[in-house]
């Protein structure tokens, strides 16, 4: 499931994050790449330091508190977000995200790109998902995020004008399987719609029971 989520960061939150980023220094993005992806990665990333740590905390807090993201991803923990900048001529060719992240050896289940610049501020720079069904490109408003299975090949199209800025992170989910997460998310949405329409009805109770028992079957401690 590929999910676009609007307003993960509202305007004050976006401004606060940009203020944090302004206190850091960007370095060659290749320094954080794996041995294969560094061959196709051309961008800049915020270097380690107090500015990066503060910005990472802001992004994780925003995602964790977003009800749509929480219901769809069921995050257990996050890899420290990276902050990438693309100027004309930069891109990130087709690649796979690492299956295991960081010193804690966290499994990556869901990849997340949080857009920090408006689409009209740059040309190109689409996040392109590649699958057997073809390609799908995403270029969302600032403050919006796209979450997608970390199992997917993807790339960032070349930027030809302006600057593309994003935060990228990965979540280990309480539920490993993407198909199972989608079922639980669908049931969550239906349950909320039933409750809003009919209140705590017998139909809602039965649906809620089934969803809860599926979580018991699928959630990993």
User: Helix/strand-derived class?
Assistant: alpha+beta
Which sequence of SSEs, written as H and E, runs from N to C? EHEEEHHEEEEEEEEEEEEEHH
Shape: globular
End-to-end distance, in Å?
23 Å
Percentage of residues in DSSP E strands: 25-35%
Number of helical elements: 5
Calculate Rg over CA atoms: 18 Å
List keywords for this structure.
221 residues, alpha+beta, 17 strands, 32% strand
Could you characterize the architecture of this molecule?
The protein is of the alpha+beta class and 221 residues long. It has helices at 11-21, 50-64, 67-73, 178-198, 202-218, and strands at residues 3-5, 26-28, 41-42, 44-46, 75-78, 82-86, 91-95, 100-101, 106-107, 110-115, 122-124, 127-131, 134-138, 145-149, 153-156, 159-162, 164-173. The strands form 4 sheets. Strands 1, 2, 4, 5, 6, 10, 14 and 17 form an 8-stranded antiparallel sheet that branches. A hairpin with a 2-residue loop joins strand 12 (127-131) and strand 13 (134-138). Helix 4 packs antiparallel against helix 5 (202-218). The protein is globular. The model has no long low-confidence stretch (mean pLDDT 94).
List the helices and strands and how they pair.
Layout: E1 3-5, H1 11-21, E2 26-28, E3 41-42, E4 44-46, H2 50-64, H3 67-73, E5 75-78, E6 82-86, E7 91-95, E8 100-101, E9 106-107, E10 110-115, E11 122-124, E12 127-131, E13 134-138, E14 145-149, E15 153-156, E16 159-162, E17 164-173, H4 178-198, H5 202-218
Antiparallel strand pairs: 1-14, 2-4, 3-7, 4-6, 5-17, 6-17, 7-15, 8-9, 10-14, 10-17, 11-16, 12-13, 12-15
